[in-house]
Structure prediction request, 358 residues.
Amino acid sequence: MSRLNGFLRGVRVLDLTRHLPGPLATLLLADMGADVLKIEPPDGDGMRDMGPRRANGRPAYFTALHAGKTTRRIDLKTPGGRAELLGLVKTADVLIESFRPGVMARLGVGYDTLDAANARLVYCSLNGFGATGPLAASAAHDLNYVALAGALPPVGADSLPDTPLADCAGGLFAALAILGALHGRARDGRGCFIDLALVDAVMPLQILALAALSAAGAPPPPGEGLLNGGAAYYHVYDTSDGHRVTLGAIEAKFWRAFCAAAGRPEWQPRHDEPLPQRALITEVESMFRELTLAECERRFGRADCCFAPAAELAQAIASPHMRSRGLVQRTADGDYQPLFPALVDGEPPAPRPPVREE
Prediction:
């Protein structure tokens, strides 16, 4: 077992969240050794009924997000349920919930009540719009948060990305904030209230776009900027046999290596042409459309020019890189587990045990 799996040994976490963001945050804490108790309502987390199911009927999404945790069903609308939660809080280090603002207080277990029961508790509220602001009580999901944050890519309804950007960013920032709060508590002995909104979590991911907005008054339109399709050296191209390849030769040295491998030395001085480089993109597109994927890999794969084929997910996890790192494992039940993506002292994390149902 990796040292990473013991970093948070002894830390007790109560997880009252649902769906993806909060469970992702506590999954990462569990990976580092925290004891996570997933508290569900009497009818269970809605994630149990979402997404595909394994052949034995197990919900794939719920199983993936709660491996390594223990689940318990508590009815917080009853006096007995509230008393049970308060009893758990007295010895807990962290509580994370994803209700709309005011719900926990109306149930009689708001932050003030829990803080009075345990002043060392780190309380994280992770929801769509946070505890303040005009949208605080509004309903939304990842697509809405990404759109409101100005980060919706220019794609059609039939080509939305599979990765929920705001949900995943919110889960990551929640885990990071909780770790910081636990470190601060080690100094002063006090817990705190963390107010984290999913829509806000998208903004740090747009730090370069915001820098461009600051400098030029607007980020570059789609297809015209350095990172969004305006540069021939940072682009996605199609091959003659229907595959896609990527070129990321931003630095001049990588572009030189690419031009040499392509046999097109006349392209080398065009690296610094103003954006968007439409004429150069057209020429590079034509070159790639004359090559098969195998030919591209032979020509550019070892050229040190930041070239990579666009793999399907099944191909990616079977690649030599992924196999050598050991950070995507397959359980005895056939489930793929993307483990905490870090090796500590050269060791990957241990695979997660299955969810434990109380």
